[in-house]
Amino acid sequence: MSLCRAYNKASVIARGAYGQVRGPLPMLGHQRCVMKMFNETNSPEGDPIREYNRHQAAYEKMSKKCKRHMTRPVYVNGKITVQTHAASRSTERVDTLQRFTDKFHSNTNVMNALGKEVTSALDCVLALGESGLSHGNLHGGNILVVYTSPDKPKIKIIDWGGGGASNNKTMAAFVQKRIRAKRKNKSRSR
Question: The pTM is what?
Answer without folding.
Answer: 0.77
